[in-house]
Amino acid sequence: MTLTTPTTRTEYCVIACAEAWRDNGEILASPMGPVPALGARLAKSTFAPDLLLTDGEANLVSLDGTPEGWLPYRKHLTMVTGGRRHVMMGASQIDRHGNQNISCIGDWHRPTRQLLGVRGAPVNTLNNPTSYWIPKHSTRVFVPRVDMISGVGYDSAEAAGPSATRFHRIPYVISDLGVFDFATPDHSMRIVSLHPGVTLTEVQEATGFPLAVPEEVPYTREPTPHELHLVREVLV
């Protein structure tokens, strides 16, 4: 199989999203958005065959969307509260400890923008692994402190006590610039990798708080020829 077209930034993002589900086992992958959805399907097609995929409504589905099982919303929530799910959500704002906001911009009592509302973010973050996909990395999104906490970050969970921290985990934040986690002593955001072509200066200037930087910052891994074939010709 010969693929001569260079890997695009979007394809690196798909690879990064797919890697978020590596070694997750038989759990429900709940991607929100086209790039995370393609990443989940790529993961199931290659290194994570036990993943379960859903249409988000009432069914478990195959890679091509064919219904394979029944998953009504009540059963879906049972999987959420039992931790058998890894969701990849979006974020209008996210801060250095992983607090996420999808509710409003500005003061709660008089916001300048009304957004989606907290929706399932608190339950997601306190019961099952929750990663984030952010298509446009900027200081408007990566902020020192979110205007309202929708998804619970590490500092907020710790302040709430053991009932909040017991199952709380934010594996990854993935943006169009790189991959980030919270594997630092104080659970502040750390660079895991930058997508090829992105510089450390670029990502720090697009972030509203200092990022933890390892001694060596790798690039997001290259897709294999088989993965590129799947992304470009099979799973689209």
TrEMBL record:
Highest taxon, organism lineage: Bacteria
Name this polypeptide is given: CoA-transferase
Entries under InterPro entries matching the protein: CoA_trans_fam_I, NagB/RpiA_transferase-like
Highest classification ranks of the organism: Bacteria, Bacillati, Actinomycetota, Actinomycetes, Kitasatosporales
An MF annotation (GO) of this entry: CoA-transferase activity
Family: Belongs to the 3-oxoacid CoA-transferase subunit B family.
SMART domains: CoA_trans
